[in-house]
Amino acid sequence: MGIIGLFRKLTKKEEKTKQVRNNAEQGKSGEEKVVARYRLNGWEMTRTGAGHDYRATRINRHTGKKETYYVEIKTGDSPLSPLQKKMKKRYGSRYKVERVDVNHFMGYRGNNIVDSNLFYCEVV
């Protein structure tokens, strides 16, 4: 590939491949950010991939009961799949959709988890 090859127009197939690869990278980056945030707040994250990305569990320090949430991580404006909508309906308030802005300077936007009882950082 010479210097001319750098400026050639991509075929539709190459454009689609490039876009799919870019979306996958954004999704992986978004998942890493959200999982890190959950783990910093004492949650154990288990990869599921069946209608949701992760199962978040921890023992509530006040009640001693095990808490479980199902977390779907979405980047940008990507919609929920039919299976994800079904799981959201099944689990109700225990199903959390975490949206990550694709602009790395913006971070998270519209997080559903704002309950102070859900997230805490314990200072020892």
Compile the SSE list and pairings.
Elements: H1 12-40, E1 44-47, E2 54-59, E3 66-75, H2 82-91, E4 95-100
Describe the structure.
The protein has one domain (12-100): Trna Endonuclease, Chain: A, domain 1 (3-Layer(aba) Sandwich). Helix content is 31%, strand content 21%. The protein has a four-stranded mixed β-sheet with strand order 1-2-3-4, sandwiched between helices. With 124 residues, it is α+β, with helices and mostly antiparallel strands. It has helices at 12-40, 82-91, and strands at 44-47, 54-59, 66-75, 95-100. The termini are far apart. The longest helix is centred in the N-terminal third of the chain and has 29 residues, at 12-40.
State the CATH topology: Trna Endonuclease, Chain: A, domain 1
Can you tell me the residue ranges where pLDDT is under 50 for at least 5 consecutive residues? 108-124
Largest sheet: 4 strands, mixed
Backbone CA Rg: 18 Å
Order of SSEs: HEEEHE
